[in-house]
Each structure stands twice: as C-alpha cells, then as structure tokens.
Amino acid sequence: MTTTDTTPAAADVLAPEPVEDTPRGYTVRPGDHDLAAHAYTQGVRAWMVASGLDPDSPALTDTPARVLRALAEMTAGYREDPAVHLARTFPVDHDGGPIIVTGVPFTSLCEHHMLVFTGHADIAYQPRPGAPVAGLSKLPRVLDVYARRLQTQEQLTQQVTAALDAHLQPVGAACIIRSEHGCLAHRGARKPGSVMVTSSYTGAWRENPEARAELHRLMDR
Predict the structure, then answer these.
(1) What's phi and psi for 78, nearest 5 deg?
(2) I need a surface site. Which of 5, 32, 67, 106 has the fewest CB within 10 A?
C-alpha cells in the first residue's frame, strides 16, 4: 500500500502566525518563521555531527524536520485561544451546583528543559444559578490550549482557572494538577515516579474553606 505524507512542512508549523508585536516586545516579520525553521533543523544536524552521527544517513536524514514538527505539534497552543472554546454556552435548568471534570489527561513541555511532563487535572467551576454553562468537552480543551505551550505546572494550573473566570464569570473555579516531570525523572535528581501537585482556587472556593472541602469530597468520589 502506498501512503502519502500529509504532514505540514517544518516552516509551516514552527510557530504562530506572524504578528506585529509579541507580548514581550519582539517584532515578528514575514519570513522569520522560515528562517527560524531552517536555523532549528540546522542546529539539530550540527548536534548530530558533534555527537559523531551522520545526519545524512537513511535513519537520520529526516530527523531534524521530524523533531521540528513534533515540537510544533506540542506547542500548538500558541496558535489557539481558549476564549474560542468558552464562547459558546448552553441554557440549562440548574441550581448553581459545581460542574466538575476529573482525571483529564494532558501532556506539556517544561519551559526550563523542554522535557515532557504528563499527568491529570481535575477542573471545576460553579456557575451562577440559572447562568448558561459550557459544553462538557470545553474544560479539557481549555487545559489543552495551555498545556500545548512551554509551561510550568504552577502557571498552567492558574491559567485554567483564570480562563474560566474571565469567560464564564462563575461563583468559583478550581484546577488541581498531578503530574510527573521528565526533568525530575530522567535527568538531574533522577527521581522517576515523583508526582508534583499544584492547585488553584478562585471565588468561593478560595474564600470559603468549607466550600473547598466539599469540592474535594466531590472530586474524590
């Protein structure tokens, strides 16, 4: 059977579409993405040569481009806006009880070493009585938007609750993440199996310990 490789070219998936000014003040000009893609793949080739490998061997000739495509896929969140997922809501007859999705898997890249960290998130928000609610899949999608960027777990946890607050205006929002980090498991301290736990609470769940305890009870069921 003959298959066709439909993977986008490396330069096409390197980074977000060009913008005039990035959040940190850098200016991205037309053509910069192509230059960066070339520089990145040449850098991978140079590392191979320095390591005594032949980058033109059949096994490695396409590796630099594959590495770049993999990186672009794992950082696709820079080209996504969580607001898109939370913009559509549905009228539902409810009394304002919490809405919780537990055990949501994710994969992200540590911004310090660009190594993978993977885990699960429990995400919740409490809509105001009678307010429209987001679709069930939207909470995991918001998590994915932020996870598919260079991240720290602390920041990722808070970005999820901040997005829920900004776009749904709930009584409260919460996110608890448990994950294993490649930078801790496979280099440096080399402690595989260690789990990092972070949490973020807003609104009623931040201000009221009893409400927070009830949320934890519901999550642990």
Answers:
(1) -65, -20
(2) 5
Distance CA 123, CA 103 (A): 9
Check residue 123 and report its DSSP letter: E
DSSP helix, strand, coil percent of the chain (3-state; round to 5):
40, 20, 40
Q: How many Å from the N-terminal Cα to the C-terminal Cα in the chain?
A: 49
Asked if 143 and 102 touch (Cβ cutoff 8 Å), the reply is: no
Q: Give the Å distances, CA to CA, from 153 to 76, 144, 180, 202, 208.
A: 17, 13, 10, 17, 24
Residues 6+ apart with CB under 8 A from 194: 180, 181, 184, 185
CA nearest 112: which of 183, 43, 44, 177? 183
Each residue of 30-77: pLDDT tens digit? 788 889 999 999 999 999 999 999 999 999 999 999 999 999 999 999
Give backbone dihedrals phi and psi of 198, rounded to 5 degrees, phi first. -130, 155
Q: Say which residues have a Cβ less than 8 Å from residue 47's Cβ, sequence separation at least 6.
A: none
